[in-house]
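Please, structure for the following, as tokens.
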Amino acid sequence: MDWRSMPSLNALRAFSALAETGSYTKAGEELNVTHAAVMQQIKALEAFFGAQLATRSGRGVALTEDGKVLARDLEAGFRQIAQGVKALSNHQQARPLHVTMSPVFAVKWLMPRLADFQTNHPEVTLLLNPTGMIVDLERDGMDVAIRYSRTEDLPKDADVLIVLDLVVVGTPELVTSQRISGPADLRHLPWLMELGTNEVPDWFARHGVTLDRPLMISQMPGNLIMDAVKRSDGITYTARQWVQEEISAGELVELFPEDNVGAFFIHNRPGEKRKSVKTFSNWLRSRA
């Protein structure tokens, strides 16, 4: 198609709106512009064709014969465009919503609430990607990420979902196997750490502990850690909210608690958000 031989799309839209409404004022309202802007576009279109397309008729506008022919063809063309736009929009809305989060967040927070979302929003299909790795939303085709951060490192204007108290936990048998009076006393115990993180070495660094030998760390998906902790395979650094029941029941012992130092926040892919993204994000906030 020779695009350079075509008149301005804005002028064609203005004329089609004028033909549909029969009024410069109403056409301007449809296009969210002034009636003077519509008149200017019509004059430009008439100059392009070298023919009059519309005339004043009382308080309204009447189309000339040339104008009627153009209006008919434009109405058919814009209707076809509208159908194509609607079809693509419906396809995008029907596409599964891709969500990434850490495995432990998926198991401890999201999954117990997920039936509520599915009941209230059956039109949205979720595709969950639990991983300890930081996923690039645009490159990996993700719509929403639920990410963890220390509160002091939260991005500016972060959409915070929940704030966490963090603790070291282990079974009474493992924790009482040696005298513990400070963070340095945990250097020689086995640790369990989520894949893709560096939280255990970072924990020692924040507490000013100098390591005299490499730490004993086993890395695994976050959803497997608590079963291993309960078997006394090691201790771990986690959110108190995830293990409060076990602590209260005496199954686990908490050490060196830190209040309100961790947070999960919602991060959406840049750009225009699909309706399903807004629906899911709003639901997350309502259940926090």
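The first helix runs from residue 9 to 21. The mean pLDDT is 91.
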